[in-house]
Please model this.
Amino acid sequence: MNTSAEITFVNDHFLALTGWKENEVMGRNWFDLFIPENLREDVRKVFHSVMGQKDTLGFLNFENEILGKSGQVFNVAWSNVLTKDVEGNVVDVTCLGVDLTERRRSEDKLRKSEIKYRTMMEAIKDPVYICSEDFIIQYMNQAMIDRVGRDATGELCYQALHRFDRKCRWCKYGETFQAGHAEKNIFSPLDKSSFNVSTTVFVNESGSLSKLSVFRDTTELIELQKRLQQAQKMEAIGNLAGGIAHDFNNILFPIIGMSEMLMEDLSSGSLEYKYAHAIYKAGHRAKELVAQILAFSRQSDQKKMPIRFQDILEEVLKLCRATIPANIKIEHKIQRNCGFIMGNATQLHQVGMNLITNAYHAVQEKNGKIIVALEEIKIDRTNLTDTGIHSGKYLLFTVSDDGTGMTDKVKNKIFEPYFTTKEQGKGTGLGLAVVYGIVKEYGGEIEVQTQIGSGTIFSVYLPLMSQSENQGAAEIKTEIKMGHEHILLVDDDAAVANLEQQILERLGYQITMRTGSLDAVEVFRSNPDAFDIVITDMTMPNMTGDQLAEKILSIKPDIPIVICTGFSERINKEQAEAIGVKGFLMKPVVKSDFASMVRKVLDDAKSENKG
Model:
């Protein structure tokens, strides 16, 4: 094409695209023949302006629409090469074109589809995001952006959405992509909220997979359920328990610890040994009492282990028979070969004692009868109860009486704290609330059948451990583990610190003891390599145990630390582990538990260092 836009050459590809023949276009004006009328004058002006400039470069690139013979429009990207004479004047232009029509149509369809898709996603009020198979966020709707605080597209989903440094523990990525969908309930530390997450997998145009997840906030629903299960009066006893637990456990620690060491030093047949043993047992009863109150107020987790409930019931029945008048008949049908459940002996003792005592109060006026039964059962679709219990193997513990029975109004309130139908001085209203809390904590259910004048049946379902778990559930003998390492011991209570020092020195350890956290930091800073482990109290002036742990770890990151506390609202086992603490003990601690924890933490630290 020359500077007057007269066509001087066309190749076969261009003719095939536009539908013209060579003799139909040669010598014709490019603009009149191929440029749409609405663009013709503007394109012509640009062309002539460029052609008339001597400083014009030797090549130019444009993209514009052209017309075919039948009037169809094509999008073409042009690379134009200018030919100049010796004076720099443009004499002709060679145009090389690439047909972009189909690409532009596809892009337009994709753009319209994306607008429609984004409109739908933005209309959803719940947070929504899409991510790839390698955990990269590909899209977030406005609700998810508002939740996170930014558009985190391109970031790792577990970091942006939950502030985790690794894949979410609940994530079943491979299974989800294989199944095509998933639904799960999660708790996100980002906003401390609970969500029901519904996920659907889809195939991209490239063949890769992505997953779309919708977050439905269930925080309020879960909180409402908790409030329904625990009345406000539960908080009162919780506050009371937390207030006294730390000091009371610090008092109990020397009582239990000193009596334990006395028993080690005394002859087992002596009168003095019996006295020391009585003190030791009394201290343990007090310890269990504090633990029960804290567990009831949800401020402590009772230590659980594989246990046979039938053995606990045998003790409960002996105690009940000794305390319930002989005119009340107690029958029992206990299956002796029931399997193990994961539980706590003190809590299970409470369950049995409270239900039997409750039955006694229902029959005491009529010289009635109480029947206690325990058996293994299997729940499946054919015998599901109305309690919402899932299929599986359970222990079924039932306590039935032929007493007065209850109205529906009373039945609906019996598990509320402080609710009681007994006369003043005969009941606190806490017994059944305690039972309910323990059963729920164990993942079980409790069912009540009652009729006025015909008595009541309490049915407790407790999940059995699996067969593989049962194999390791035999009673384990406690072994006192010794050592020789150097320990930095920190506790502001001198009596407790001295006792801990004596226990650890008897176990063979070298002890440096401090009663002040600031002093302990300076001792450690002066020679951090001199110590193999740090054991610290939690509640101390100037610097709490968790703060002390963080300070020491900043000096020597690999030093193992154990926190030992009577009670603290600031920290629990999970929170301690999160800041790098390797061990967590609740006071008062018996020697065997103390020895086992210290040895385990030291051995684990050595294994990590070798690795």
